[in-house]
Amino acid sequence: MHIESATQEQLIEWEKELSAHYKKICQHGLNLDITRGKPSAEQLNLSDKLDGILSSDYRTADGTDTRNYGGLVGLNCARELGAEMLQVPVEEVIAGGNSSLTLMYYAVLNGYLFGFAGNTAWRELKAPKFLCPVPGYDRHFTICEQLGIEMINIPMGANGPDMDTVEKLVQEDSDIIGIWCVPKFSNPTGTTYSKETVGRIAQLGLVASPGFRIFWDNAYSVHDFGHPINLTNIRTATLENDTADCVLQFASTSKVTHAGSGVAFVSASQANLNSLKAQMQAMTIGPEKVNQLRHSRFFTEYTSLNEHMRKHASILRPKFKCVLEHLHNALTDAAMGTWEKPEGGYFVSFNTLPGCAKAVVKLAADAGVKLTPAGATFPYGEDPEDNNIRIAPSFPPLEELDTAMSVFVLCVKLASLRKKLDMA
């Protein structure tokens, strides 16, 4: 039944039937969690040969003892892995600890306190601002909010951020000093930026303020489900426009090997790397190099990166199929929402009817299914339409995910009907 074509009497009867079903579900004592994009145990098991891989041989090919201090930019063999993931020269890569989020926070803090490549520190501006494509990644927004950097919503489309709006804003406001980008399989929409979008982003440095930086969080660069999706190389595009100093790229193995003990990377021009290293020298004597060596040996001796990621894809693909089938089968004819069909990454972005997302999340929680909080995919947790929900299928076993999605679509129907009846 279509929600817009149903009569008032049909809507009331439909709501009663679903409410009765919902009450029975609430009695089952479910405790299911699809809040965050964590790898499942099955995915983590793919990298268990990391354990013991060094066999007490802690030296690199050039004789570096990884157990000791030093090596500010990380091991060269680890930097080569980052260069492969980001498709950049190894000389432009720093290999760090387990979290790219840490490197992103550090880079934003560096720009805020000191500026990049001799440009004005952002804290000296009247009102530093970041452009934030939405829906987007909540932890990006948290970094800005903690530092008091104002955030401006930029609508996301099928090809990436609304570039007409982006270009207009950076030309008009010199206090705009950055933009967050998840360019491949964006969190949460699954969008991969088009060649035209990447080209226009690469040209922003020609019209933006001198200290403007593009934070290119390429977290899902190798996380395709099937045939690899091509993303235009942002470094190449900026070199063609003489704007290479405007971009910092990030990646990690957190969803490639062991999530809690991976290796993170930042890539940038030498001018930007010099700015980062100047402050890193006061902060650290070097990263955790033993783990970096483990990763370089793992991908050399056991499997190639692409072969390894195909194993991840075979685990994730059925879970995303489960989510999309539930949405299609339960909600398409009812016209109670829209959703993306990603070809990689970790999330499915679902849009309820306007004003229903918070109600869906609460109904699901009361039935024992935890979802990412409504509004989390927007700066300050404020979704102006109250309609976006991020679904994270990766962590639970397929059977639990199937149950969780059955509850989810039921809650979407209930919230939609109740909203419609309130409006009648």
Automatic annotation (TrEMBL):
Record key words, sorted: Aminotransferase, Transferase
GO molecular function terms attached to this record: L-aspartate:2-oxoglutarate aminotransferase activity
Top-level lineage group: Bacteria
Gene3D superfamilies per UniProt: Aspartate Aminotransferase, domain 1, Type I PLP-dependent aspartate aminotransferase-like (Major domain)
Keyword Transferase recorded: yes
InterPro entries: AspAT_Ic, PyrdxlP-dep_Trfase, PyrdxlP-dep_Trfase_major, PyrdxlP-dep_Trfase_small
Protein known as: Aminotransferase class I/II-fold pyridoxal phosphate-dependent enzyme
UniProt organism field: Microbulbifer okhotskensis
